[in-house]
């Protein structure tokens, strides 16, 4: 049987990894797929770099549209990234009747509804295992492995850069800015790390997982997104004293009022497996009604780990190449006409427990007033610590102390009001730190 012919758009880190792994493991991959898979054409603006990778085994061009227009190409792999030209090229490939494999989580999180509809109309597949958590097969697990379950929630460490930074801050007691610089020097963080450290990258990935888990359209604009740039080493230390670790989690939950879709720093009990995921590794916990909690762990980025996911998609499409389009696994796991209109909850309607740190004057009555405000807003205290603040005196007259409070579950809007009221107290000397807490039990 003739091999499936693949056109590669972009041959940077992931593209070169895909070419090399496919060539190295060709025999094994052919045994699995039932026919060969060959990259026969590569488009990259840096044609010299591309030729250095592929040699004479593939035709190299500078214009991606030459790949799309080639009638001999069966599958187009998009590894350009971003929202702009990548969207145009993916839609053109679909219009040309090509299957598409992409690692572009940003593109699908923002334009997925349009892209999946176009693919459905043309009877082609858009596969995107590599878009979420690199080499971890979480998309396949959600779409196929857990298909018998009514999924209740997902919580994931899905950005290796932020997990590396938080791991180093905890292990070495360093401030965020110091560790970020180290991460950039080591290649874990980009020169402009905004998408990573502000939670946007994690939110792109979470949006896709949420859509697959709950059968809803992709709705990135409805996600609540917070990053780690404002975290302080003191809070990581205090959390440790209380038996918790701080991770940037992507969390999506099914509730009676709607779907929660949020990314933010989170206290997680140190005894949970996900709390012990260190360095640049990724991990995702999925809780289903039948299976309970399942954990998926591995490298979330890198040349060959991500290539592993790209090639897995190529094998899937090869197996399904001649299958009836109406009997393929749907892009978002649920049949397109069965997607739910369940709303994404506004953040102020979500229910979470919280960690609060207040820097206050060290005098009688302060704790009583803080506790009173919490009680007035129906917020119950779970634990409380008081620690001397290393900052010394305020205006040379007032000693200050850190008050650390863990609350029980409460509605976000009520917590916001309570924080505003406490912040207005003259005895509260600095902005209040609030970090949400999840038991993940």
Describe this structure in words.
This protein is 37% helix and 26% strand. Helix 6 runs parallel beside helix 11 (200-214) and helix 14 (366-376) packs antiparallel against helix 15 (412-423). Strands 7, 8, 9, 10, 11, 12, 13, 14, 15, 16 and 17 form an 11-stranded mixed beta sheet that branches. Strand 14 and strand 15 (398-407) form a beta hairpin. It contains 15 helices and 17 strands. By secondary structure, it is of the alpha/beta class. The longest helix is centred in the N-terminal third of the chain and has 18 residues, at 105-122. The model has no long low-confidence stretch (mean pLDDT 94). It is elongated, with a radius of gyration of 24 Å. It folds into 3 domains: 4-135 and 303-338, NAD(P)-binding Rossmann-like Domain (Rossmann fold); 138-298, 2-Layer Sandwich (Dihydrodipicolinate Reductase, domain 2); 348-437, 2-Layer Sandwich (Alpha-Beta Plaits). The termini are far apart.
Per-chain topology:
Elements: E1 4-9, H1 13-24, H2 26-33, E2 37-43, H3 47-54, E3 59-61, H4 64-69, E4 75-78, H5 85-95, E5 99-102, H6 105-122, E6 126-127, H7 138-145, E7 151-157, H8 160-172, H9 176-186, H10 194-197, H11 200-214, E8 224-225, H12 233-241, E9 244-254, E10 259-269, E11 281-288, E12 292-299, H13 303-320, E13 351-361, H14 366-376, E14 381-394, E15 398-407, E16 410-411, H15 412-423, E17 433-437
Parallel strand pairs: 1-2, 1-4, 2-3, 4-5, 5-6, 8-10, 10-17
Antiparallel strand pairs: 7-9, 7-11, 9-10, 11-12, 13-15, 13-16, 13-17, 14-15
Helix pairs in contact: 1-13, 5-6, 6-11, 8-9, 14-15
């Amino acid at each position: 049987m003739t091999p499936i012919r693949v056109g590669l758009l972009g041959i940077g880190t992931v593209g070169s990894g895909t070419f090399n792994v496919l060539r190295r493991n060709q025999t094994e991959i052919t045994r699995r797929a039932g026919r060969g898979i060959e990259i026969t054409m590569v488009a990259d603006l840096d044609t010299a770099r591309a030729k250095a990778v592929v040699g004479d085994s593939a035709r190299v061009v500078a214009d991606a549209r030459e790949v799309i227009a080639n009638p001999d190409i069966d599958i187009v792999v998009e590894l350009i990234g971003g929202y702009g030209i990548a969207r145009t090229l993916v839609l053109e490939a679909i219009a040309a009747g090509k299957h598409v494999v992409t690692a572009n989580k940003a593109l699908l999180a923002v334009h997925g509804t349009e892209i999946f509809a176009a693919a459905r109309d043309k009877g082609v597949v858009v596969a995107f295992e590599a878009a979420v958590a690199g080499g971890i097969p979480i998309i396949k697990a959600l779409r196929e492995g857990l298909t018998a379950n009514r999924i209740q929630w997902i919580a994931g460490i899905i950005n290796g850069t932020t997990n590396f930074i938080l791991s180093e801050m905890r292990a070495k007691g360093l401030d965020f800015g110091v560790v970020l610089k180290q991460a950039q020097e080591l290649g874990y963080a980009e020169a402009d790390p905004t998408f990573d450290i502000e939670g946007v990258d994690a939110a792109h990935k979470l949006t896709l997982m949420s859509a697959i888990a709950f059968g809803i359209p992709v709705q990135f604009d409805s996600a609540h997104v917070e990053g780690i740039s404002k975290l302080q080493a003191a809070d990581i230390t205090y959390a440790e004293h209380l038996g918790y670790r701080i991770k940037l989690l992507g969390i999506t939950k099914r509730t009676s009022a709607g779907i929660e879709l949020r990314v933010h720093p989170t206290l997680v009990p140190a005894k949970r497996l996900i709390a012990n995921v260190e360095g640049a590794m990724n991990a995702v916990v999925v809780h289903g009604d039948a299976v309970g909690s399942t954990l998926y762990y591995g490298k979330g980025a890198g040349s060959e780990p991500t290539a592993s996911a790209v090639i897995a998609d190529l094998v899937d499409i090869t197996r399904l190449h001649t299958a009836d389009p109406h009997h393929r696994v749907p892009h978002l796991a649920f049949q397109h006409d069965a997607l739910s209109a369940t709303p994404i909850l506004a953040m102020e309607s979500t229910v979470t427990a919280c960690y609060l740190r207040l820097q206050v004057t060290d005098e009688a009555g302060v704790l009583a007033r803080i506790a009173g405000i919490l009680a007035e807003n129906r917020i119950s205290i779970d634990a409380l610590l008081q620690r001397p603040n290393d900052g010394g005196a305020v205006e040379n007259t007032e000693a200050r102390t850190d008050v650390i409070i863990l609350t029980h579950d409460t509605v976000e809007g009520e917590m916001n009001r309570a924080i505003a009221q406490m912040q207005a107290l003259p005895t509260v000397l600095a902005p209040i730190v609030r970090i949400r807490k999840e038991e993940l039990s």
